[in-house]
Amino acid sequence: MPYLFARLIPSLDAVFGLERSQDLGPLGLTRTTAAQPGLQFAYEVDLWGRLASLREAAELQFQASEAEQQTLRLALAATVAQGYVALLSLDRQLLLTHETVRSRRAALAVAEDRSRMGYTSELEQTQARSEYEAAAQLVPQLEQAILEQEHALRRLTDDPPGPVPRGTLAALQAPAVPGSLPSELLRQRPDLYQAELQLAASDRFLDSERDRFLPRVQLSASLGRLYVDALDYDPVKVWSLGASVLAPLFDGERLEAGVAVATAERNQAAYAYRRAALNAFSEVENALSGLDSLARQSRRLEARREVLARSLAIAEDRYHGGYSSYLEALDAQRNLFDTQLAEVRLQEAQLNRLIELYRALGGGWRAPEHAATERAE
């Protein structure tokens, strides 16, 4: 961009010429040394705005590169947020697993005592141990997953491996999503803004290529002194002023090819802008519909958990009353534990959908007041 801006202002160069010659004259050989230092001035008059269009194109491309950086920063922020949510989800799953392990260890102790005293068969004891081991083997698996997730998060934040300070999944408050979102929010998306800037830059570049068919006016001037050792008088002051008009007559269709290339690039930029806009609408719609679907799943899963908790209480009462074996209680415990884990994963999915919506809207659903003004400028 500085290069194109410099072409809009005059150029001033220092020049120096040195010449040595030898001629045969009436008096014999004559050697002459001539030196000519000076300054040269040149300026192209931008009558049709060709150079200004090039400068505007460069400025727009620079702004587009900044928008691309914002896109990368937004994607990184979303990735870090989703990684943090995944870490909290693993913490919650580990907590539930520890609670289940303690519960099944107690159930196993009861089953072993009852089997030893002959109140129940060995089948109930082996089934209780199987359920205990099934829950216990999840603990090291989740602990390893937590460790790897911590390292992944610290790698994203350019930190060495180590623990990540954090809260709990239950403490996260999901923001409320408005019932309707204006499409103007999509103008916050840096990738859409980047495509818009690239389209505008391609328009300016196409204008500059078309202006090459028009005549160009160039001004030039020079000022200097001529030093000749064979002359006895002082150095001679030399100067010149000039103007020229250059109009293309034949260039092997180079100008036509330049316009064709610029037109193709402009059409490609227009297609990229349309594709970016459609992709933005699609991502927002997917995030919103996903949130609605997960909310309905959450209500069903919550109802199932309440039913299973009641079922477990009934199974334990029946077992203690001698009306059923402990296998019914173990089955109810297993179903309740699986449902609790599913609820945690569903909450993680809901938070991830909110993060996706945040990214799809370019940074949330509350547009900055200055956003519209900046885009208009």
Helix fraction, binned, reads 55-70%
How far the N terminus sits from the C terminus, by CA atoms, comes to 19 Å
What's the helix count?
8
Q: List the quaternary state of the chains.
A: single chain
The SSE order reads HEEHHHHEEHHH
Structural class: alpha+beta
What is the name of the CATH topology of the largest domain? Outer membrane efflux proteins (OEP)
CATH architecture of the largest domain: Up-down Bundle
How are the secondary structure elements laid out?
Layout: H1 2-6, E1 11-25, E2 28-45, H2 50-116, H3 122-136, H4 138-156, H5 190-211, E3 216-228, E4 236-246, H6 254-320, H7 326-360, H8 371-376
Antiparallel strand pairs: 1-2, 2-3, 3-4
Helix pairs in contact: 2-3, 2-4, 2-5, 2-7, 3-7, 5-6, 6-7
Describe what you observe in this structure.
The chain is an alpha+beta fold and 377 residues long. It has two domains: 10-45 and 215-247, Single Sheet (Outer membrane efflux proteins (OEP)), CATH 2.20.200.10; 48-213 and 254-376, Outer membrane efflux proteins (OEP), CATH 1.20.1600. 63% of the residues lie in helices and 15% in strands. It is built from eight helices and four strands, in the order αββααααββααα. It has helices spanning 2-6, 50-116, 122-136, 138-156, 190-211, 254-320, 326-360, 371-376; strands at residues 11-25, 28-45, 216-228, 236-246. Strands 1-2-3-4 form a four-stranded antiparallel β-sheet, with no helix packed on it. A hairpin with a 2-residue loop joins β1 (11-25) and β2. α2 (50-116) packs antiparallel against α3 (122-136) and α3 (122-136) packs parallel to α7 (326-360). The longest helix has 67 residues, at 50-116. The two termini are 19 Å apart.
